[in-house]
């Protein structure tokens, strides 16, 4: 059974809160990591490393740079 | 003063140590003679001959938010906590970032990060490493983080001279202010090296106490029964400031950071030069740099690590440089040896000793070794008289680094 969008969003919220201190409630699908959440490139790598472990996926570097919004990451993880 | 130069004063103190999570709790434990040393409970103690250490009394996770905990090596965490305390203690001075500097180093750097990262790399691959691995393992990381935290732009430096690092950092800070590069400098040392590889490596040098059945009695500088140093962890940080800047804002002054003296033994990579001339000259240079006379020095916070070889040599050096009169203490008897953090915390202690006019006692000095040539304060803390007083903090490091910092009350 594929993981639901809500479950991924909850998991990402937890990861982003752990890494950046941003409240999980602010992590919503339409948010842009750089413009809305003020997350820098190193933190993005940290989030990707944690997300790979959490959701058991590989996020190659050339894909990571295309993941601009929370929704982009959810879509990528859903495959 | 020997030369017409800017005077540097101590206006803020910060610490996190095996005795307490801040300066107040550390200092009161020290005066009460409470030890910060205890038996380690980790499984790895079975693999090493030393089964105790001075673990920080307050874990950084209780103080720092989780994002900072993730990005900072434990040594950097200690440094940032102590720097923030020192900064607040100094009254968070309003100073242009271009006039604010940082000099904070570590003897070993982010060793626990390096070793954990190597495990991650081998077990999971390069792309599971934290992107903060490099800034966590680099030994200048603490200086960098503190400069970011305070917006310090006059230069952030990291001395690396093993167990003399903290004192050397304070000496550099004095120079930064005297030379006009900065008005305020946050300076000191930090270390977080309680890891089986460090314990095993120091044990391989036969440098550590193995008094496993009596951990609180193991660090016993100057005592006949001493058998090695006891590893501690933590940080000690001072806010140093030009006297003019401090007076203009009405800052509380703990002490004058009056001078620094440096020498190198040029003798052996880890053993002290037997005559102690390197340490002796470092003290003499500090006294001269401070414009003092040896007779002014009423107290020495000794490096005295409780290793069999070093403690007597240091007392001989004190006797030669200063005379037989100073009241000497070895606070490592209660904190353990904070390595690169030692000069930082022991300079905090020296400044407080002058400010509060009380010398903390050396613990565990039951039977003074033959060849102790100066008076060691033991048993109870000793009150100091009123009037102008001066004191020295000694720090010596593997590599043959000798640093003495002179502090005065006025």
What does this structure look like?
The complex is a heterodimer of chains A (79) and B (410). Chain A has a single domain, classed as ACP-like (Non-ribosomal Peptide Synthetase Peptidyl Carrier Protein, Chain A, Orthogonal Bundle). In chain A, 56% of the residues lie in helices and 0% in strands. Chain A contains four helices and no strands. In chain A, helix 1 crosses helix 2 and helix 1 crosses helix 4. Chain A is globular and about 30 Å long. Chain B is an alpha/beta fold and 410 residues long. Helices cover 33% and strands 19% of the residues of chain B. Chain B is built from 13 helices and 15 strands. Chain B has helices at residues 23-32, 66-71, 74-89, 111-124, 133-137, 141-150, 165-178, 196-204, 243-248, 277-289, 310-321, 332-335, 342-356, and strands at residues 8-16, 38-39, 52-53, 100-106, 156-157, 184-191, 234-242, 255-264, 297-301, 327-329, 358-359, 375-376, 382-383, 390-397, 401-408. An eleven-stranded mixed sheet of chain B has the order 5-4-6-7-1-8-15-14-9-10-12, with helices on both faces. A two-stranded antiparallel sheet of chain B has the order 2-3. Chain B has a two-stranded antiparallel ribbon with strand order 11-13. In chain B, a hairpin with a 3-residue loop joins strand 14 and strand 15. The longest helix of chain B is centred in the N-terminal third of the chain and has 16 residues, at 74-89. Chain B is globular. Chain B: Belongs to the thiolase-like superfamily. Beta-ketoacyl-ACP synthases family. Chain B: Its EC number is 2.3.1.179.
């Amino acid at each position: 059974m594929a993981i639901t969008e809500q479950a991924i969003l909850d998991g990402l919220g937890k990861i982003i809160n752990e890494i950046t201190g941003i409240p999980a409630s602010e992590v919503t699908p339409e948010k842009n990591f750089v413009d809305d959440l003020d997350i820098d490139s190193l933190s993005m790598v940290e989030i990707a490393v944690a997300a790979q472990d959490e959701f058991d996926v590989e996020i190659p570097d050339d894909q990571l740079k295309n993941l601009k919004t929370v929704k982009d990451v959810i879509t990528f993880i859903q495959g | 003063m020997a030369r017409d130069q800017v005077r540097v004063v101590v206006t803020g103190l910060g610490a996190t140590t095996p005795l307490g999570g801040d300066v107040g709790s550390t200092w009161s434990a020290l005066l009460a003679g409470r030890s910060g040393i205890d038996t380690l409970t980790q499984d790895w103690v079975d693999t090493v001959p030393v089964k105790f250490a001075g673990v920080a009394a307050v874990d950084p996770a209780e103080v720092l938010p989780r994002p900072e905990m993730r990005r900072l090596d434990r040594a950097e965490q200690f440094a940032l906590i102590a720097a923030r305390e020192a900064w607040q203690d100094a009254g968070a001075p309003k100073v242009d970032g271009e006039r604010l500097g940082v000099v904070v180093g570590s003897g070993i750097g982010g060793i626990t990060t390096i070793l954990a990262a190597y495990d991650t790399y081998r077990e999971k691959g390069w792309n599971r490493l934290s992107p903060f691995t490099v800034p966590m393992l680099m030994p200048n990381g603490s200086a960098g983080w503190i400069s970011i935290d305070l917006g310090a732009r006059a230069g952030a430096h990291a001395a690396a001279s093993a167990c003399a690092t903290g004192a050397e950092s304070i000496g550099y800070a004095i120079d930064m202010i005297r030379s006009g590069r900065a008005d305020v400098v946050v300076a000191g040392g930090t270390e977080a090296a309680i890891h089986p590889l460090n314990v095993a490596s120091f044990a391989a040098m036969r440098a550590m106490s193995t008094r496993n059945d009596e951990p609180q009695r193991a660090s016993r500088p100057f005592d006949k029964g001493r058998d090695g140093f006891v590893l501690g962890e933590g940080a000690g940080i001072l806010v140093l400031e030009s006297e003019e800047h401090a007076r203009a804002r009405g800052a509380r002054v703990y002490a004058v950071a009056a001078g620094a003296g440096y020498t190198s033994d040029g003798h052996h990579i880890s053993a002290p030069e037997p005559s102690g001339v390197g340490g002796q000259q470092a003290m003499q240079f500090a006294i001269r740099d401070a414009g003092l006379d040896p007779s002014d020095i009423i107290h020495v916070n000794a490096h005295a690590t409780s290793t069999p070889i070093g403690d007597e040599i240091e007392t001989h050096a004190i006797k030669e440089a200063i005379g037989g009169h100073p009241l000497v203490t070895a606070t490592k008897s209660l904190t353990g040896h904070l390595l690169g953090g030692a000069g930082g915390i022991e300079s905090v202690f020296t400044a407080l000793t002058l400010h509060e006019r009380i010398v903390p006692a050396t613990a565990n000095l039951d039977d003074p070794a033959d060849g102790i040539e100066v008076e060691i304060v033991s048993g109870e803390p000793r009150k100091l008289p009123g009037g102008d007083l001066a004191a020295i903090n000694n720090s010596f490091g593997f590599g043959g680094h000798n640093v003495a910092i002179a502090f005065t009350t006025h």
